[in-house]
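Quick one, T. Sequence first:
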Amino acid sequence: MKKSFFKLFLFAVVLVLFLSSCKQQTSSNGKQGATNGQTVKGGTITVTSVREPDTVDVQRTTWVDDANTHLYEPLVSYDFDGKIVPALAESFEVSPDGKTITFKLAKGTKFHSGTPVTAKAIKQSFDRFKESSPTAYMVGPLKDIKVIDELTFAFHFSEPFAPFLSNATTAYLAPLDPSVIDKYGEEFGQHASAAGILKLSEIKRGSSITFAPFPDYKSVTTFSENKGAPTFDKVVFRFIPDDDTRLLEFKRGNTQVMLKVPPNNIKELEKDPNVELFKALSNGHTYLGMNNKKPIFQDKKVRQAISLAIDRNPIVDFALEGAAKPIFGPLPPTIPGYNQQVEDAAAQKYAHNVEQSKNLLKEAGWTETNKDGIVMKDGKPFSVELWVTQEPTMQRIAQILQNQLKEVGINMKISVQEDATIRAQSPKGVHDMLLWEFGWYDADILHSMFGRGLSTRVHYQNNELIKILEKARVIVDTDERMKLYEKAQTILVEEAPWVPLFVRENVTAVRDLDGFKVHPMTGEIIWSDVKMKKK
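Structure tokens:
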């Protein structure tokens, strides 16, 4: 790679090293991915997850995780040191002016359908993404993609776009198989084909998704011994919202991988000699979101009052049993752009203070109180509804929040919704509040959440903030870019359109497998070396 890469994408190499150091992954036995004892070829690996993807078509969703990401092979990826390295593309080069990134594919690469991965296919896939994906903003000021030859293509931008390579490590920007898109159109998600390590076998809505190893898969990563397809027969992702059921299935040996181990089960599983736990802080945070379109939340004093009413300590200590870190600022320490001064200022400004919260509500006109202790304005009580997922831990958090807000005179009703419903309906702005989370690898996530027309969860738009976030996307100098994100975060702290709550410790439990690894940067399972243990 040329020096221009290091000039333009210094944040993606140097700052991501910081991210990697913050996101230290630990394994309960200290031997992550070690192979112990005898293994067998073949077998079915069953993974349990709380959330079912709304679709496996990554160009039609705003949420990817282990249950749909492994179908896809991105052009580039992170190595374990946090550097951006080739993946599906065998090489890439950034022009001196930062406006062109040229990729070259390896010969013989195929999609799951058997059709070859070519420069033309890449262009077709990205054209679809740019035209119709809900996350099309991830390619920034992309003008066009030029096919140079069968295996070479170039992305041309109207101006340098700092987050592109970081974004390109994700499944969102991974190429889809155009031959399958042409055949099935908007039904692609039922027959998805790409170039990832796993290929789609079966989708049972409301129950499971089954994948098989892609026999023609070839890895260029340095963190796996096996460079080809895994040796197991298939992977089944089962979707079980109930924690007790997931735990029981895991302890019985009916499942081998349990994602997002409930906090109250961590200590129990740590004592089990047949279980290995993998822990890492999330690259995002969980927040209490207000729908800023609703008149009740358009007064900044009301939003600030809600922030002051929240005490994070019982949430972390009881609902999460210590498996999280409280946070007050817009970014967690696991995302480059996190600023300790901003975090300290936010923690001081919004330290739990019931009296100050009540005073702000009064200043906002909520001066009356009904017989139930709920504050009123113009004869109407402050009553709102909170959307929360079916995950029991999130419901416990919602109950704590409900009690804390009632203490300052706010009646918050809890409405349990399916995960897919929240994702589909919250962009329409029909909710009052939601308990939600985000994750990413770059501070550009703030643009995704608060950019012009992009605030689909909290619906907050601020022209000054938008201008700062748009400028930060095209700044080459890392220091200048980080200063812009500091300004953006300062605005968010003052405006309080949401209440950041905590950074979760993601815990994955594994049994009866050898060679299991979780990527320390992305938190995704690395399937290459995984084998079933001989029983």
